[in-house]
Amino acid sequence: MALSRAQKQEILGGYGDTLADAQHAFVIGFKGITVTQATELRSRIRAKGGKYLVVKNTLARRAVEGKPLEQVRDHFTGPTAVAYGADPVSLAKVLTDFVKESPVIEFKAGLVEGRPVAANQVSEIAQMPSREQLIAKLVYLLQSPIVRFVRVLAAAGPQRLAIVIDQVAKNKG
């Protein structure tokens, strides 16, 4: 069924509002995927805060002109879908886990932090720690010296602390 010009403009506008400005996206081929598998993939991506969109290639190529996703526009061939979201690591994990279970989708390319990523690098991205894990590690590393200092203060007592500070001042001066 051919689309009218108005329908194409509506689709193009929808792509422009959502897909074109994505900083983190993975272009995938889905030849041979069943409706059940597509629904399962879509729900897993949504659970991680992402979106899954089956695209019309010519309209998608037009929508990404001048946008970050333009760098991978050559991969909009054949049955194509785009998974995009705020966290590229969790999105890559969902996609690679799905590929292990049902190898009906293939990675064509990706975009992480506005930079193009080759299809074979998606599994490497999936092995990285998530944003939440990285923040937790950073907080721990920032908090650790302070906690150790407080423990030393509590164990040493105020008089010993004064002696240590006096010795440090004499050594520095």
Architecture overview:
The chain starts with a helix and ends with a helix. It is an alpha+beta fold and 173 residues long. It has two domains: 5-128, Alpha-Beta Plaits, CATH 3.30.70; 129-173, no CATH class. The longest helix is centred in the last third of the chain and has 42 residues, at 131-172. It has helices at residues 5-17, 35-47, 57-63, 88-101, 122-126, 131-172, and strands at 25-29, 50-55, 80-85, 106-112, 115-118. Strands 2-3-1-4-5 form a five-stranded antiparallel β-sheet. The protein has six helices and five strands, in the order H-E-H-E-H-E-H-E-E-H-H. Helix 1 packs across helix 3 (57-63). Strand 4 (106-112) and strand 5 form a beta hairpin.
What is the class of the largest domain in the CATH system? Alpha Beta
Main sheet? 5 strands, antiparallel
> Whole-number radius of gyration?
25 Å
Enumerate how many helices there are, as a single number.
6
Please bin the fraction of helical residues: 40-55%
Give the strand tally.
5
CATH topology of the largest domain, by name, is Alpha-Beta Plaits
Count of discrete domains: 2
Short description:
With 173 residues, the chain is α+β, with helices and mostly antiparallel strands.
Topology of helices and strands:
Layout (H helix, E strand, L loop, with lengths): L4 H13 L7 E5 L5 H13 L2 E6 L1 H7 L16 E6 L2 H14 L4 E7 L2 E4 L3 H5 L4 H42 L1
Helix pairs in contact: 1-3
Main traits of this protein?
single chain; 173 residues; alpha+beta; Alpha-Beta Plaits; 2 domains; 5-stranded antiparallel sheet; 6 helices; 5 strands; 16% strand; elongated
